[in-house]
Structure formats: C-alpha cells, structure tokens
C-alpha cells in the first residue's frame, strides 16, 4: 500500500503537467484578448499593446508557458489580471465554500443513492424498484440549473423555508446548514441516480451468491445478511462510483454556484474565463485536477480496506 501511494504521488507530477499544458494552450488559442478587456472600450491600440507587454503576452507562446511552469515549481500561481490579487489567495478564500457544497452534495447523493439501490435490489421488479428506476432516470435527465431554480422558487420564494442564495454562515450551524440544503440537493441529485443504479446492480449480483444463501439457511437475520454479508462485498463498484462522482462534484459546482450565487471556485472560474484571466483559470483547473487525482488514490486505498483480498503489486 505504501508503494502504491508513493507511486501514485510520483504519477501526479506528469499528469498535472499535462493538465497545465492543455489548459494553457486552450486558453491562449480561444478568442479574446485579456489586454483589450483590461483596457476597456476606451483604450487605444497603444494602451492595449502596453498592457500586453506588461503582462508578458507579447512573448512567444512557449516562452510564456515555461515562464508559468518556472513560477509554478516555486509555488507561485501568479496574480489575477483583473484584480492583481494572488491566485492562490483568491482560490483559498473561495475553496471552503466549494468543498462544503461538494461534501454536502456527496452525503445527499450517497444516502439517497445507496438507500434506493438497496431497496430496489431486495424488492426487485416491485413498485419500489419501478419508482427507483423512474427517479434515477429523472435525476440524470433534469438539468441542475432548472432544478435549482425550481427549488428556489418553491422553498425560498413561495414557502420561505430556506435562503435563496449565498453562504454567509459556518456549515456546522443551523443557519449554515439551511443555506447548504437546496444547493446540496441540486448538485447531488444526478450523482444519487448513478449511485442508485450501481448499488442495485452490485447488490443483485452479490445477493445470488452461495454464501448469501448459506447465511440465510443458518438463520442469520435478513437485515444482517444485507448490511453485513451482502453490502461489504457489493461496495467495491459502489465506492468507485462514489469516488469518481465526488471528484466530478468538486469540479462541477460551476452551475450550482451560479444559480445560488455561491462565492466558490466554480463561480470564480466562470468569471475568470469571461475576463480571459489566464492565471486565475489555470490555478482553478490545477486545483480541481489535483483533488480529482487524490480522490482516486483514496478510492484505491479504500478498496484494500474493504476487501483484504485486494493487493497492489
């Protein structure tokens, strides 16, 4: 296991270098000039060229990239073109909101998805199974921006049960929890549907095994059969889906943060892309990519913890 962790951490470097290269080239090839945006509509051609020289945008593309890498290896993510704020500082100020939203969404998705998947499996082809299948299809199909808008309209505007937007309170307080509920449901619904279908399939496969029939024949309570004997062996593919979805949630909060006006990394990224703020976009994507890779490493470690038969050579 220690060798696996060390090897994966070493693999992190070339993966992140690849991410930085793709993002850097994509941003610079996309239409739009940061210097023109910073200068504004009244800027002259001389003003725009002066800004380009100041930002180093008039240098060859690969010169700019290797300069960025040199700063990155020194722990410097650069400074925002728009606010002149440190990119690392700006991201860290907003990352707690994104992380809290992702964790809350993953809790919602896991509780709903695993619960619905188990019920569907043990009551296969029943009304519960049919409703779960319909719910999973709806969860995957409904866009986040529509679902979020409807939740705000119903629970914030009409009934006034929850705040409509923003994170202003710590998430461990009741006020902060109320602010998290609607965004977490909005973001977690799609993941809940995927987890439910995977859980159903995994439980159905395991529940037909000989050791499950043996446990029932020995008089083990059905609750113990499902939760102890069945679920532990069915959790490997479920954990894979949960881990991957958590990684996607960390990088996929953009729409939800926009709908609920949450000042997180996703919203920061949208604003930076609109302003062609290259350092801010690159820093945000680099953070999301790093977290995604680390989440996958944690999933691999959980495999061996859940099933001791798994060994990494």
From TrEMBL:
<feature type="transmembrane region" description="Helical">
    <location>
        <begin position="134"/>
        <end position="160"/>
    </location>
</feature>
<keyword id="KW-1133">Transmembrane helix</keyword>
<dbReference type="InterPro" id="IPR045621">
    <property type="entry name" value="BPD_transp_1_N"/>
</dbReference>
<keyword id="KW-0533">Nickel</keyword>
<keyword id="KW-0472">Membrane</keyword>
<feature type="transmembrane region" description="Helical">
    <location>
        <begin position="234"/>
        <end position="255"/>
    </location>
</feature>
<feature type="transmembrane region" description="Helical">
    <location>
        <begin position="12"/>
        <end position="30"/>
    </location>
</feature>
<keyword id="KW-0921">Nickel transport</keyword>
<keyword id="KW-0813">Transport</keyword>
<comment type="similarity">
    <text>Belongs to the binding-protein-dependent transport system permease family. OppBC subfamily.</text>
</comment>
<comment type="subunit">
    <text>The complex is composed of two ATP-binding proteins (NikD and NikE), two transmembrane proteins (NikB and NikC) and a solute-binding protein (NikA).</text>
</comment>
<dbReference type="GO" id="GO:0015099">
    <property type="term" value="F:nickel cation transmembrane transporter activity"/>
</dbReference>
<dbReference type="GO" id="GO:0005886">
    <property type="term" value="C:plasma membrane"/>
</dbReference>
<keyword id="KW-0406">Ion transport</keyword>
<keyword id="KW-0812">Transmembrane</keyword>
<dbReference type="Pfam" id="PF00528">
    <property type="entry name" value="BPD_transp_1"/>
</dbReference>
<dbReference type="Pfam" id="PF19300">
    <property type="entry name" value="BPD_transp_1_N"/>
</dbReference>
<protein>
    <recommendedName>
        <fullName>Nickel import system permease protein NikB</fullName>
    </recommendedName>
</protein>
<feature type="transmembrane region" description="Helical">
    <location>
        <begin position="180"/>
        <end position="199"/>
    </location>
</feature>
<dbReference type="InterPro" id="IPR000515">
    <property type="entry name" value="MetI-like"/>
</dbReference>
<feature type="transmembrane region" description="Helical">
    <location>
        <begin position="101"/>
        <end position="122"/>
    </location>
</feature>
<feature type="transmembrane region" description="Helical">
    <location>
        <begin position="285"/>
        <end position="306"/>
    </location>
</feature>
<dbReference type="InterPro" id="IPR050045">
    <property type="entry name" value="Opp2B"/>
</dbReference>
<feature type="domain" description="ABC transmembrane type-1">
    <location>
        <begin position="95"/>
        <end position="303"/>
    </location>
</feature>
<keyword id="KW-1003">Cell membrane</keyword>
<dbReference type="InterPro" id="IPR035906">
    <property type="entry name" value="MetI-like_sf"/>
</dbReference>
């Amino acid at each position: 296991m220690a060798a696996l962790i060390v090897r994966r951490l070493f693999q992190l470097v070339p993966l992140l270098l690849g991410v930085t290269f793709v993002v850097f080239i994509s941003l610079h090839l996309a239409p739009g000039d940061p210097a023109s945006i910073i200068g504004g509509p009244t800027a002259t051609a001389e003003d725009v060229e002066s800004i380009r020289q100041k930002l180093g945008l008039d240098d060859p593309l690969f010169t700019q990239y290797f300069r960025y890498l040199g700063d990155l290896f020194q722990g410097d993510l650069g400074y925002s073109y728009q606010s002149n704020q440190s990119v690392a500082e700006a991201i860290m100020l907003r990352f707690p909101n994104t992380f809290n939203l992702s964790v809350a969404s993953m809790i919602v998705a896991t509780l709903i998805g695993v619960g619905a998947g188990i019920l569907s499996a043990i009551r296969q082809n029943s009304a519960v199974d049919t409703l779960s299948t319909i719910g999973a299809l709806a969860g995957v199909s409904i866009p986040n921006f529509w679902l979020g808008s409807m939740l705000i309209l119903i629970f914030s505007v009409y009934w006034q049960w929850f705040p409509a937007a923003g994170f202003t309170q710590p998430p461990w307080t009741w006020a902060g929890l109320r602010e998290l509920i609607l965004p977490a449901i909005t973001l977690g619904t799609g993941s809940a549907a995927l987890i439910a279908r995977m859980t159903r399939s995994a439980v159905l496969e395991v529940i037909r095994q000989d050791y499950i029939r043996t446990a029932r024949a020995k008089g083990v309570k059905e609750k113990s059969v499902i939760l102890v004997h069945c679920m532990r062996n069915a959790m490997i593919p479920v954990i894979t889906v949960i881990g991957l979805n958590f990684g996607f949630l960390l990088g996929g909060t953009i729409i939800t943060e926009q709908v609920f006006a949450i000042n997180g990394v996703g919203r920061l990224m949208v604003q930076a892309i609109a302003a062609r703020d290259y350092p801010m976009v690159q820093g945000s994507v680099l953070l999301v990519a790093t977290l995604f890779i680390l989440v996958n490493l944690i999933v691999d470690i959980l495999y061996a913890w859940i099933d001791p038969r798994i060994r990494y050579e």
